Amino acid sequence: MHTVVGVLRGGPSREHEVSLKTGAAIIANLPAEQYVARDIYIDKSGQWHDRGKVVSPERVLRQLDAVLIGLHGEYGEDGQVQKLLERFGVPYAGSDSFGSYLATHKLLAKARAQEAGLLTPPFRHIQNVQEAEEAAHDIIRTFHQPVVVKPTGWGSSIGVSIVGGYAPVLGAIQQLFAEGALSVLVEDYIRGDEATVGVVENMRDEALYSLPPVEIIPPTNDFYSYNSKYSGATRHLCPGNFSRVTAEELQRLARVMHRTLGLRHYSRSDFIVTPKGIYYLETNTLPGLTAESNLPIAFASVGVSLPDFLSHLVTLALKK
Fold it and tell me: Per the CATH hierarchy, to which homologous superfamily does domain 102-119+190-318 belong?
């Protein structure tokens, strides 16, 4: 008898379109000889759809053996949908609701990284728009320019800008609050080579298997922005051009962050490699699985197909 696997995609986040692609990749690559993929579309208002009909989450979840989450951003990666799945007792792959929230909240993740001994860019946290002017004045006095301005909780580099000077910094902060950011981080702009490392639990006889680091090379006139991620302009090298010592350290740090954040099943952590050391940026609990995404690129480099990985995720989800 086939296992019925619900694939959640879409969702009420700014990453709706990317999530549709990840969900489509999951559905296309879930081995049909073992599983029946159930395409569960969540629209931008948060309404669930099954087989073209509006349904309540409770009704459709009762019909599933397990869930793979293809959602990104708010609702999908911040623990909200995980709480729903936990409430109805549906097995799912990926981190639980608390770990998801912790990793998505960049300030809390940075604090955990610092406690674990990792380097992370110096930062200023701005909790509301009323603090913006004073913060911008302080930032141009105490941070080298330009700086990185980012929302605390969004993903896929949405809302991230690299700006310098009082007016541009203030404008970037105010713009994020106007677009609905709950708080804003301003960080030192660390120049170096960007790397990302995926880890998977219980793969190839390792409790926490580290994939080879992927080196990310954005176009020269851009950083690793949302546009450069999904336009095909960014180059991804796996394995990256790192020394053996650096590559092993990147893999170790990715495992450290997976454990430090209390994550489950799989994750992907991002770093900047500099002559002064490796700086931790953030961790993704539901990495993208599109053709442009880093995790499938890393799997291909070690001979793991996407169908094999998805089967592994379902197995992890169903383990009690």
Answer: ATP-grasp fold, B domain (3.30.470.20)
How would you write the chain as a 3-class SS string?
A: CCEEEEEEEECCCCCHHHHHHHHHHHHHHCCCCCEEEEEEEECCCCCEEECCEEECHHHHHCCCCEEEECCCCCCCCCCHHHHHHHHCCCCECCCCHHHHHHHHCHHHHHHHHHHCCCECCCEEEECCHHHHHHHHHHHHHHCCCCEEEEECCCCCCCCCEEECCHHHHHHHHHHHHHCCCCCEEEEECCCCEEEEEEEEEEECCEEEEECCCEEEECCCCCCCCHHHHHCCCCEEECCCCCCHHHHHHHHHHHHHHHHHCCCCCEEEEEEEEECCEEEEEEEECCCCCCCCCHHHHHHHHCCCCHHHHHHHHHHHHHCC
Give the global pTM: 0.92
Is 255:208 a contact under the CB 8 Å cutoff? yes
Fold of 3-93: Rossmann fold (3.40.50)
CATH of domain 123-188: 3.30.1490.20
pLDDT in tens, 87-127: 999 999 999 999 999 999 999 999 999 999 999 999 999 99
So where are the chain's domains?
A: 3-93, 102-119+190-318, 123-188
Phi, psi of 55 (to 5 degrees): -140, 160
